Amino acid sequence: xxxxxxxxxxxxxxxxxxxxxxxxxxxxxxxxxxxxxxxxxxxxxxxxxxxxxxxxxxxxxxxxxxxxxxxxxxxxxxxxxxxxxxxxxxxxxxxxxxxxxxxxxxxxxxxxxxxxxxxxxxxxxxxxxxxxxxxxxxxxxxxxxxxxxxxxxxxxxxxxxxxxxxxxxxxxxxxxxxxxxxxxxxxxxxxxxxxxxxxxxxxxxxxxxxxxxxxxxxxxxxxxxxxxxxxxxxxxxxxxxxxxxxxxxxxxxxxxxxxxxxxxxxxxxxxxxxxxxxxxxxxxxxxxxx
Length: 290
Ligand code: SF4
Ligand code: SF4
Known about the structure:
The protein is α+β, with helices and mostly antiparallel strands. It folds into two domains: about 10-160, Alpha-Beta Plaits; about 205-285, Immunoglobulin-like (Sandwich), CATH 2.60.40.10. Helix content is about 10%, strand content about 30%. It has helices at about 15-25, 75-80, 105-110, 130-135, 150-155, 175-180; strands spanning about 5-10, 45-50, 60-65, 85, 95, 115-120, 125, 160-165, 195-200, 205-210, 225-230, 235-240, 245-250, 255-260, 270-275, 280-285. The strands form six sheets. A four-stranded antiparallel sheet has the order 12-11-14-15, with no helix packed on it. A three-stranded mixed sheet has the order 8-1-9. A three-stranded mixed sheet has the order 13-10-16, with no helix packed on it. It binds iron/sulfur cluster (SF4) (2 copies).
């Protein structure tokens, strides 16, 4: 059994319920697996958000709840002395609250900055995936599967953005979610296997608005936007909506793509660009074919 959490950025609405549940669980009491989490300055479930877009006409936000990834080959375990950080047989990575005292190197080792330094206790601290609760026969938070207890953050999420389960079981809900969504590993951990799996983290979007000829100033509904990346062989197609807007999400980063806008009875518009950042390409005015 390998326990993990799938985190779907598309479903996360940044309500902070998971963050609050984590604080509720870990701030007051410690356990053999962690000292209490300070109320301020530590974010064992860190809701990382950023603004996307380069034009006020198309701005979006990205939300990536980020606890420790519980890596399969954890850098923090390698940095720890005397077994102060270790991986359990179920895959959960723990920092021992006694042995880790004074070991600041454990904080510095984590590629995604998921370990925090407790100045008062001189202790590195992080998410335990609520292992102390999962081990507790008296803890009874189940979701769906009556045999599977879940961490507090997962139980608290009102939008099912967090799914907990056995990654080794292909029939588990978490395995199904991972199989049917885009896995988007956090960049500092790319190439590594982790027990926290991020799904649908935004990459790059392109968007634009299509108008009929300038003198008409009317939005064009149903125009086709086709993007092609020769390097990866991928292509994307969409149509303008009732506002004349089109948008393509999850483009590969830093690739050359061609954009073609077509509408029956009008000259096609074609240009090439690079997916170096989220980009509103602006307004495209079509010209009638003569
Ligand atoms: S994400 Fe950081 S703290 Fe968590 S297991 Fe990996 S290296 Fe350790
Ligand atoms: S509880 Fe769920 S929806 Fe709310 S911030 Fe956490 S992951 Fe996102």
